[in-house]
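Anyone up for a design puzzle?
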């Protein structure tokens, strides 16, 4: 899936009469913690993993500080139906807890909370409620979280407001995000809306505190040097839209720099964090999450293997009379069959002109025809997301023009692979791919000047992969244990200034790459990648060849 350095990388309604009959309970189902249910899979991350992650983060905190992380909000789909709940990746990484309306507090130095001394971590959870659980699924509750997730101190979320945490004693209060667009459930005095309000009140967060300033400073630190071409216009737009951003001296010094040297100087002159720090916690989490542990790699490997198998099976089943929706359905059927709970992101399945839309998600073309179909799809297995893209001809054979573009993208990816090794700059794979595509487009006559390459290759080549499809990371030189994507592409929409034979050809090839001590491992190598491999796979029979649904009248 394509990644923008400036933006981050979800999912039917019951009748009203039935809703009324539920004694005031919502008809939507918020998925509860799987650990609370019997007969669950046995290969989730062990509580010891999450405990270690918490301790590593706590050790990185400044002296006399406290860190606060909130569970993800519940999101409404329509009327009284919510989207299936998905936990904040940071929250899950540190706790393994998958329920909403919760808050995690980490203390640099041990505290006394609720009469318990020596507390360095406290999780406030939604309480058990048998009546609600009979409608919307089992809950762990505070005691279940303590027993199954091995948190040191747990309590119902109602206790957070009166927890006795001595907020005034901390020299710094750290947080990575304070949810601002949260619904207030009038029936629940300790939902996420109230947890956030209680935190702001107890910790004394100024009413004029603007997280946009902390976010912008973080973006400048991460991308100010490596992606100034995109970041500077974004800083300009945010400065015009947000007064606090326009008044921040650090942001404006970067904005006004005109050379790389001036930008480097502005970036290095980072102001000291104040008492309320919305950046440091995210930075430390990025360092931790960038390097995957063996347990994480095992789950990622499974997610990628499932996704690669999906690409194989779809290629066998492809034919011109299929719809984009049907192709999406085959991918996602394979995911569910192998135990993946979700897609890591909305599946991108675009045929012909739709394949030239970078984040096309409508997937409603009723007939593929003979144009190429671009399939950017990834399974999410126990929270970890794959991201594999393949482009194939529904007819089973590439046309000469299609093959020329495809082979150029393939050559660019091969060049990028060579840069996937410890110590390489994060941008090295992209630079290698960009050079190959630039040279190839010049040779084919699609562009007349190297500066025109962005018309047909407008995105970056790599992003981190993990609990987020666009995962956290530092964007420093590659290290063993890092997992990135390598995904060059060429997209030639109709009416482009080139020979019409190229129009509506969109090709992206994306693999998931584990950086090893000696180089790299292509985790998605099981998905056919070359023209010969794709055409040979498409010539094979499919388990769906004889699957015929009745015609609806």
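Challenge accepted. My sequence:
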């Amino acid at each position: 899936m394509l990644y923008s350095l400036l933006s981050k990388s979800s999912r039917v309604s019951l009748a009203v009469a039935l809703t009324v009959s539920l004694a005031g309970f919502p008809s939507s189902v918020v998925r509860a913690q799987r650990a609370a249910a019997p007969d669950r899979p046995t290969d989730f991350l062990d509580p010891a993993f999450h405990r270690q992650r918490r301790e590593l983060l706590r050790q990185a905190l400044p002296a006399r500080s406290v860190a606060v992380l909130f569970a993800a909000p519940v999101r409404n789909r329509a009327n009284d139906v919510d989207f299936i709940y998905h936990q904040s990746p940071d929250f899950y990484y540190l706790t393994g807890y998958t329920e909403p309306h919760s808050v995690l507090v980490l203390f640099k130095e041990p505290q006394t909370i609720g009469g318990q001394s020596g507390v360095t971590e406290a999780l406030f959870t939604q309480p058990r409620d048998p009546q609600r659980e009979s409608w919307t699924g089992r809950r762990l509750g505070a005691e279940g979280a303590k027993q199954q997730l091995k948190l040191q101190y747990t309590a119902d979320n109602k206790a957070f407001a009166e927890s006795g945490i001595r907020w005034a004693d901390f020299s710094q209060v750290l947080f990575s995000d304070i949810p601002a667009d949260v619904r207030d459930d009038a029936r629940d005095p300790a939902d996420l809306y109230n947890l956030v309000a209680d935190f702001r009140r107890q910790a004394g967060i100024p009413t004029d505190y603007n997280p946009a300033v902390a976010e912008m400073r973080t973006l400048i630190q991460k991308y100010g040097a490596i992606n100034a071409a995109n970041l500077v216009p974004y800083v300009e737009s945010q400065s015009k839209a947000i007064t606090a951003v326009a008044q921040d001296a650090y942001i404006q010094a970067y904005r006004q720099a005109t050379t790389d040297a001036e930008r480097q100087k502005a970036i290095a002159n980072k102001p000291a964090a104040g008492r309320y720090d919305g950046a440091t916690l995210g930075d430390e989490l990025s360092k931790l999450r960038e390097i995957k542990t063996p347990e994480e790699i095992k789950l990622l490997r499974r997610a990628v293997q499932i996704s690669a198998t999906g690409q194989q099976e779809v290629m066998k089943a492809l034919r011109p009379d299929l719809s984009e929706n049907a192709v999406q359905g085959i991918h996602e059927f394979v995911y569910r069959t192998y135990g993946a709970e979700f897609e890591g992101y909305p599946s991108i399945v675009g045929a012909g002109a739709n394949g030239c839309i970078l984040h096309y998600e409508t997937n409603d073309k009723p007939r593929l025809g003979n144009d190429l179909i671009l399939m950017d799809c990834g399974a999410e297995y126990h929270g970890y997301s794959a991201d594999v893209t393949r482009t194939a001809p529904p007819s089973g054979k590439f046309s000469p023009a299609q093959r020329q573009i495809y082979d150029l993208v393939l050559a660019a990816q091969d060049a990028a692979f060579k840069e996937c090794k410890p110590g390489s700059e994060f941008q090295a794979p992209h630079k290698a791919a960009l050079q190959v595509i630039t040279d190839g487009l010049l040779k084919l006559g699609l562009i007349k000047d190297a500066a025109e390459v962005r018309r047909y290759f407008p995105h970056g080549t790599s992003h981190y992969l993990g609990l987020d499809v666009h995962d956290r990371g530092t964007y420093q030189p590659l290290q063993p244990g890092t997992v990135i994507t390598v995904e060059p592409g060429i997209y030639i929409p109709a009416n482009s200034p080139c020979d019409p034979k190229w129009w509506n050809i969109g090709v992206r090839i994306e693999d998931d790459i584990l950086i090893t001590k000696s180089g790299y491992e292509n985790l998605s190598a099981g998905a056919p990648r070359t023209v010969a491999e794709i055409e040979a796979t498409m010539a094979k029979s499919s388990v769906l060849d004889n699957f015929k649904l009745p015609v609806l009248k």
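A detail worth pointing out: The first strand starts at residue 65 and ends at 70.
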